[in-house]
Amino acid sequence: MVSEVSIPGEEIPPVSPDDSLGTILIVEDDPRMQKVLARTFTQERFRVLVAGDGQTALELFRAERPSGVILDLILPRISGRELCQMFKRIAPETPVIIVSAITEVVDKVLLLELGAEDYVTKPFSPRELVARMQGTLRRQRKPAALDVFRFANCEIDFRSMNARRSGVPVVLTAHEFKLLKFFVDNVDRVLSREVLLNEVWGYNSYPTTRTVDNQILKLRQKLEPEPANPRHLLTIYGAGYKFVPHP
């Protein structure tokens, strides 16, 4: 099922593309949840599109290139996990917020590493979900820094999501690009694990700060000349981490 939403029995008219704050694709197979989310986003002046299965969502994403996606995990035809990967390959800059009843930490970390901007566990407040999407879109609309950033023997192209070290391609995950971009935007600033979790992972609180440590360890292994003795992604004991491009 796919539609541009006008909500039967409601007084809320659809928002035209010219008047909207952006287009939100809601991928959800529960008609009641579709209606609640469509109404809430429409009230906040978003144009809303709805897909009730994974294949339709993929086709709609390719055709419409929405501003953001609300994505359920359990869907007919293509799973939410697969869709998240596909969306990020097509348009890495488009924010995806996962909604699911799954509460396992491992599943949350996996989805965030696939590139999702946030993860909301059911049941949730529709208003909170809108606020999270609005915050994500605001952060994206900040003036862009240089698309290509160079430090030491590394060259990082954030727009095309390509990385090279000494001219040799390096494979970074979508979430590793996101973490590195935040460091680049905050050069020489000491960043606590809590700040990184909130700003990069999108959580105000998180079950374990080891998530940050593990991601930085992976970045060091891929980008540092000597990962065991890092020169750029530095640990500031008792405080967090600092990125120094030219030590």
Structure explained in plain terms:
This protein has 247 residues and is an alpha/beta fold. The chain has two domains: 2-140, Response regulator (Rossmann fold), CATH 3.40.50.2300; 148-243, Arc Repressor Mutant, subunit A. It has helices at 31-43, 54-64, 80-90, 105-113, 126-140, 174-185, 193-201, 210-223, and strands at 2-4, 23-27, 47-51, 68-72, 96-100, 118-121, 148-151, 154-157, 162-165, 168-170, 233-236, 240-243. The model is unreliable at 1-12 (pLDDT under 50).
Work out the helicity level: 25-40%
Major sheet attributes:
6 strands, mixed
Mean pLDDT: 82
Fraction in beta strands: 15-25%
CATH fold-level assignment of the largest domain = Rossmann fold
Blueprint of the fold:
Blueprint: E1 2-4, E2 23-27, H1 31-43, E3 47-51, H2 54-64, E4 68-72, H3 80-90, E5 96-100, H4 105-113, E6 118-121, H5 126-140, E7 148-151, E8 154-157, E9 162-165, E10 168-170, H6 174-185, H7 193-201, H8 210-223, E11 233-236, E12 240-243
Parallel strand pairs: 2-3, 2-4, 4-5, 5-6
Antiparallel strand pairs: 1-3, 7-8, 8-9, 9-10, 11-12
Helix pairs in contact: 2-3
Distinctive features:
single chain, about 250 residues, alpha/beta, Rossmann fold, Arc Repressor Mutant, subunit A, six-stranded mixed beta sheet, elongated, disordered N terminus
Short description:
The protein is of the alpha/beta class. The chain has helices spanning 31-43, 54-64, 80-90, 105-113, 126-140, 174-185, 193-201, 210-223; strands spanning 2-4, 23-27, 47-51, 68-72, 96-100, 118-121, 148-151, 154-157, 162-165, 168-170, 233-236, 240-243. Helix 2 runs parallel beside helix 3.
